[in-house]
Specification:
This protein is an alpha+beta fold. It contains 9 helices and 5 strands. Helix 6 packs across helix 8.
């Protein structure tokens, strides 16, 4: 029993399945290269990520990093006017790993894929499904509240949050110089984006996931 449980924990992965909201009213040549660039910086395609049907994608990542990576994707897409993204996080096992992620299987894939369909119907943009209902309940309540903030990021706020999430060592002075704005403007955008709270939420997420 001990060996079996250990094997399950060892093989636990996270799958993010997402789709771009309002993509039909936007030129994919603008946002798609940047999406692929971010996914490609994490791992190789098609084994670990794929974009399919034009505006949907799936990516495999570690359980601990999945919330942060979800917000990296969210903030990236929100830097494009009138675009947003739905993100369904599935956590579980992987029983079959194919050369293409869309042909792999396991509870992580099932949880993520089915969840995306559910949140489309419910009008949600961020949710999680694991094999632990208590963890699901607690984290999804948190995500519902947090999404009120994330969904209302402006392009300017999303850009600041995205840069900080992808490079936490950036100083506000460096951001100000890079974006050609004042340091006080950077500070205001960081506050509006609740960056400190994002970091606290990520820490809480990692502790909660450790209960699985």
């Amino acid at each position: 029993m001990f060996i079996s449980n250990f094997a399950y924990i060892y093989s636990m992965i996270a799958i993010i399945t997402g789709d771009i909201i309002n993509s039909q009213n936007s030129d994919s040549e603008i946002w798609l290269p940047r999406l692929k660039n971010i996914l490609g910086s994490w791992s190789e395609t098609p084994a670990n990520w794929e974009v399919y049907r034009g505006d949907e994608f799936q990516v495999k990542c570690s359980v601990n990093d999945v919330f942060q990576k979800s917000l990296i994707l969210k903030s990236l897409i929100k830097t494009f006017e009138n675009l947003d993204v739905r993100l369904a996080i599935g956590i579980g096992n992987e029983v079959f790993s194919s050369e293409k992620i869309t042909e792999s299987n396991g509870s992580a894939y099932v949880n993520s894929g089915r969840l995306l369909n559910d949140i489309k119907t419910e009008g949600r943009t961020l949710a999680i499904k694991t094999d632990n209902e208590k963890v699901n309940r607690d984290l999804n309540i948190l995500f519902k509240w947090a999404s009120i903030d994330y969904n209302n990021w402006t392009v300017a706020t999303a850009e600041i949050i995205h840069r900080l999430l992808t490079n936490s060592d950036l100083t506000q002075d460096e951001l100000a110089k890079d974006l050609n704005i004042s340091q006080s403007s950077v500070s205001q955008r960081v506050k509006r984006g609740n960056y400190d709270l994002i970091q606290e939420t990520d820490s809480f997420f990692r502790k909660k996931i450790a209960e699985l």
